[in-house]
Amino acid sequence: MKKLIVLVASLITLLVAAAAIAAEPLRIGALFAVTGPASFLGEPEKNTLEMLVKEANAKGGVAGRKLELVVYDTQGDVTKSVQLANKLIKNDKVSVIVGPSTTGESMAVIPLAEKEKIPLVSCAAGIKITEPVKKWVFKTPANDHVAVEKILIHAARYKQKNLAIITVSDGFGSSGREQLKALASNKGFRVVADEVYGPKDTDMTAQLTKIKASKPDAIICWGTNPGPAIIARNVKQLGIKTPLYMSHGVASKKFIELAGSDAAEGILLPAGKLTVFDKLPKNDLQLKLLRSYDQAYKKNYGVEASTFGGYAYDAFILISNALKKGGTPAQIRDGIEQSKRVVSVSGIFTMSPTDHNGLDLSAFEMVRITRGDWELVK
C-alpha cells in the first residue's frame, strides 16, 4: 500500500511538472533590421509580429500557451545579426527565431541555427537560404528565381529578348543576378548589359549610360531600397524610355515615395498579392486574410500593411500551426516542414523535406506603378 501511495505521489508530481512546463510561455526570438538602410523591411516585420503575438495572447495564446516575443534590432549588420542570434539562443532560450530581414544576414546566421538545432524562419528572399535545404532553416518570401521567372514570362509576351540587368552587390542582388543570367539564358533571352552597383551608391548614371548604349528591349533592376529608387530617378534623368522592371525587393509604397511618383510611373515588378488585394477576384483564397491583415495593421500603426511585414506574418502562421503539434524546437521544426496548403500573406505554403520555402509562381502578381499606386497587369 505504501509503495502504491509513493507511486501515485510520484505520478502526480510528474503531471504537475508537465503542466507547469506546458503553461510556460513559448519564447519566440526575432532578428529584424528595424533601423538602418533596411529599416523598410525590418520595421513592418517587427510591427507585424508584435501585433500578432499580442492578438494571440489576448485569445489565450496558441495551443494553450502564451507567447513571449524577444526582438533585437540588427540594423542590417551581418556581424551584429550573428551576435544577437547567439544571444537569443544562449541567453534568452528561444524555441524558434523569425528573421533576419536580409539575405546576407540570414546566410550568416544559418550555421548557428543548424549547430544549435533551433528552427530559423528567414524573412529574406535569396534562394541560397533554403537551397540546398538546411534541416533547421525555412523562409517565407518566394525564391528569387520565382520572381525572375515571373518577369521573364511578361518580357517574353512583349518580345523583349535583349535584356540589360543592373544588380546590387549584396547577398540579395548577387543571388538575383545569378538567377537572372541563368534563367535568361535557358529561356532564349540575351543579356546585352550586366552592371552592378554598391548598396551605398548614390548615383548610377555611369552604369545606366552603358546600359542605354547597349540598346536593350528592357532593363531589369535587382535590389532593395534605396538603390532601386535612385536608379528609377536616374533612368528618368537620362531620358531612357526602355521598359524598366524591378524585383519584388521594392514591393512597398516606400519605393514609390523614395523614387517619386513621376520616376516610378510605369515601372513593372512581381509583387505579392497584398499590394493589389483590393483588385483580386472575390474567390481568391488569400483575399480574406489579406484584407484582415491590412485593416489590423492600419488600426495599430496608421499606415497600410506592406509585403515585407507580410513575411513576418507568414512566419507567425507557420509557427502557430506547428505549435499545435508540440512546442520543442524539434517539434516546431517538424511542424513547419509538414505545412500543407497553409494560406497566408505571401501565398499558400506547402513545405516538404526537399522544399523549405513552399511557394510557387502563384505567390506573385505582375503589377505596374500607375499614378503613385499599384495596378494589376492582366
Automatic annotation (TrEMBL):
Keywords: Amino-acid transport, Signal, Transport
Domain of life according to the entry: Bacteria
Signal sequence, start to end: 1-22
Ranges for domain Leucine-binding protein: 25-358
Biological-process GO terms, alphabetical: amino acid transport
Cited InterPro entries: BCAA_transport, Leu-bd, Leu_Ile_Val-bd, Peripla_BP_I
A Pfam family the protein falls into: Peripla_BP_6
Protein name in the entry: Branched-chain amino acid ABC transporter substrate-binding protein
Organism, as annotated: Geobacter hydrogenophilus
